């Protein structure tokens, strides 16, 4: 059975059969072709058996291994690779079929190449998961054939490898590098303006491009004969919580990724940046119930706790209870904190239902309500209307877009900080708002 499961016929063999069939048909009109056709038949049979012998005379004709990371990063392009080598003494033609996890719904994976004895080759490809969870890679199938290309032998390697898909670790590492190198404060990465200084004085240093010219120390400049500036140190160890709504409003997908996953990726990257800047970070998820709560701590190892909690978050198809959220915050978060609330409001009536609870939280904390633009509606608004139905659709889209901006104005009227953002810009806009609040000394 093992032999039969590994034994395949190459497509070229069927071409040879087609030629033989044509010879037999033509021999009806050309009698001399009939014995030639039989001779070719016996030659093909001999080559068939010889090709099978070549492939099965080596018990271990091929080696191959799939190289997977310990974790895949959600919503990012993750590079993978397959390494393979042959022990056959002839040039081997191979086809690689990797059984990708069912979540990718990809059934046309194939890579064809040739390889000589003693040579190791690497085939690199990439995958982009859009859901968190366990991804199981099936068998790595490698089909080998000789230069005759009559028979193929299948080799099976590495069955059922499971790799978990976590929130965007690649995105977190990107912003981690910017935080360490202090590039988050360079022009173009944060769109804020420092208003005054509520930070403690740290040192006098030489002016570099990007420093606020208002901090120039003229006495030190005159003494050293080049520009010197005062450097201030932000207040540290301030508690910051990411509040993630897991209700039905966060189920909406954009670019194959749910709003919840955008919020999760932003929470991970932002928490890492805040920890590197010596603030305490925590998180809370809620819908009808409080699903998880991580108290704010200032330890870099605390990021692993947040990562594991984010990995297991799922959306619910119910309306979220903001009253329960307020009660939990009032009971568990006793110090004035920065609260980043990831949610979504599609109608101003939905906002007004939750406004009393938002105002109650904003009374004791700095609350930032983060909700999303509907990018598909914006694309519809940007297109030209060519008929009456298109005008109707565009008018409705503009009405919904206007409601989003009105909701933002309504929250700002009550002194609540807001971020209205495209899903793909969520992380950088959240970090910008955090840096702005720190610069203004609001917490």
TrEMBL record:
User: What Pfam families is this protein classified in?
Assistant: DUF58
State if Acetylation is listed as a keyword.
no
* Organism domain of life: Bacteria
**Which parts form a coiled-coil structure per UniProt?**
none
Query: What keyword terms does UniProt attach to this protein?
Result: Membrane, Transmembrane, Transmembrane helix
- Source organism (scientific name): Ulvibacterium marinum
UniProt keyword Iron-sulfur, yes or no: no
Q: What is this protein called?
A: DUF58 domain-containing protein
According to the record, the segments passing through the membrane are 12-30, 36-56
Q: Which InterPro entries match?
A: DUF58
Q: Where does the record place the DUF58 domain?
A: 204-375
